[in-house]
Amino acid sequence: MEMTEPPTNILVVEDESGFASVLKMLLTDGCRDRFSVTLAETLSEALDHLRTGTIDVVLLDLSLPDKTGLETYEAVAQAAPFVPVVVLSGLSDEAIAVQAVREGAQDYLVKGQFEHRLLERAIRYAVERKRIERKLREGEEFFRLISENVTDMIAVVDADGRRIYNSPSYCKLLGEPSNLSPVDSFEDILPEDRDNIRNVFRDVVSTGRGCRAEYRVRRSDGELRHIESQSNVITDSSGLTERVVLVSRDVSARVRTENELRQALADARRAHEQLHSAQQRIVQAERLEAVSTFAATVAHEVKNPLQTIVLGIDYLGDSIASQDENGVIILKRMAEAVERADAFIRGLLEFSTHRKRELQEHDMGELLTASLAAVEPELCSGNVKLVREFCDDAPLLRLDARPIKHVLVTLLTHEIHCMGGGVIAVRTFLRDGIESGKRMLMVDIESRPNPGAAHDTAMARKMDAQTKFRLMVSKKVLELYGGRVDYAAQDRVSRYTISFNT
């Protein structure tokens, strides 16, 4: 069974009954029952028919007994905004009909200048245009509801970056969209990020491929926000980028969480390193304690037999005649060997006494000053000039001052005795550790002998056994407090470098 469309309900509002009858005849007889016509002679009567909601289109005369002119159309449009209106006008009020079209009427016809085909086409066009207009309005309303309720920020810019549209969600970030710069959409981006985002935008426009980018903006209240934007392009008929659609969101919370996590990981890594360092110091201290105990035991056990040997050498020296040259040489070598052994024993005893005592925070400059005061007689007698350069911002070090001063005095005395006159420079400074990356306090003891002075710069300097052992003890003592000592010699200049982690 063939389906037939229902007729279009037309309301003819015309106070001239003869002309209204002609219109009804044209619409019903000439258009083969496709229209159903209702007549109304006054505006009030027309409004009653419109309230029923059954009218599809209105043919409206603007000159009625109860209302004339443009107000007639305005009343009908207000009563039925979705019903298309075709204005019927005479030659004298054609200008008013044109004004009614500007106000929203679909078309106008001049009385006496149309026949049924023109009338039918005007009605069909009016209905179709109104339908399209309603669809567009519904689409705009739908888009408005989406844009007003979506949390993401939607923007449309042209190929030069000028704003065309900003969704209302922008007001939560940058204020009212109407207050944003219509010329430059990059103006609100932080200057440090602006050039990079401009370059990214140019690439999107030139390649036609959207991408994701992050940047920072500063709100009017000064708050810094992190934004992530996804761009997509709209091309013209030739394939060139005409518009760029940007969907953005505030990712400040995510960036803040990432930074906090990164900081937490760094803190955990630093705490792990500190714990490892503390464990190493404990192990080192325990080892040193064990070695010290062993050294003290050995020293005491060997010291007594050594005294017996010394007494025996003295007795034999008195007993052997001076004419026995070989006996004298042997006794002399035995005495030298006993002296070296005694120095070794003294070193063991001294080493065994270096244990952690009172740990306090000390200024390295003050420790160096006290140590230099202790060796001042040696400086004067050895014809050695002192140069000191201490940094002002050196941090305090937590250590036992007594063994550290002993180490400094040992190294200074050793250099004074070896150089035979010259200059000793003592400096402190801060430096980043090459391996650890931590801030380190450095102490340099540099000796420059006078030209022509006898000075052995090789590592195998001639020194007595006690001095060698004291240098070894110094290294162990510094390690006990988290420090180390390095030695270098070149071109008759020698340098001890002591370093402490801060």
Give structural notes.
With 502 residues, the chain is an alpha/beta fold. It is built from 13 helices and 19 strands. The chain has four domains: 8-147, Rossmann fold (3-Layer(aba) Sandwich); 151-250, PAS domain (Beta-Lactamase, 2-Layer Sandwich); 260-353; 360-501, Histidine kinase-like ATPase, C-terminal domain (Heat Shock Protein 90), CATH 3.30.565. The longest helix is centred in the middle third of the chain and has 68 residues, at 252-319. The protein is rod-shaped, with a radius of gyration of 52 Å.
Topology:
Elements: E1 8-13, H1 17-28, E2 35-40, H2 43-51, E3 57-61, E4 63-64, E5 67-68, H3 70-79, E6 85-89, H4 94-103, E7 107-110, H5 116-149, E8 153-158, E9 163-166, H6 171-174, H7 191-207, E10 212-218, E11 224-235, E12 241-250, H8 252-319, H9 325-353, E13 360-362, H10 364-374, H11 376-381, E14 384-389, E15 397-399, H12 401-419, E16 422-432, E17 439-449, H13 465-480, E18 483-490, E19 493-501
Parallel strand pairs: 1-2, 1-3, 3-6, 6-7, 14-16
Antiparallel strand pairs: 4-5, 8-9, 8-12, 10-11, 11-12, 13-15, 16-17, 17-19, 18-19
Helix pairs in contact: 2-3, 8-9, 9-13, 10-12, 12-13
Distance between the termini: 98 Å
Query: Do you know the CATH architecture of the largest domain?
Result: 2-Layer Sandwich
Question: Class by helix and strand content?
Answer: alpha/beta
> What overall geometry do the principal axes of the alpha carbons give?
rod-shaped
C-alpha-based Rg, rounded: 52 Å
The CATH topology name of the largest domain reads Heat Shock Protein 90
Strand tally: 19
Percent helix, as a range, is 40-55%
The average pLDDT value, as a whole number, equals: 79
Q: How many DSSP H or I helices? A: 13
Low-confidence stretches: 455-463
The CATH class of the largest domain is identified as Alpha Beta
Number of domains: 4
What do we call the CATH homologous superfamily of the largest domain? Histidine kinase-like ATPase, C-terminal domain
> Largest sheet, described in full?
5 strands, parallel
Side by side, the strands of the main sheet go 2-1-3-6-7
Q: Which band does the percent of strand residues land in? A: 15-25%
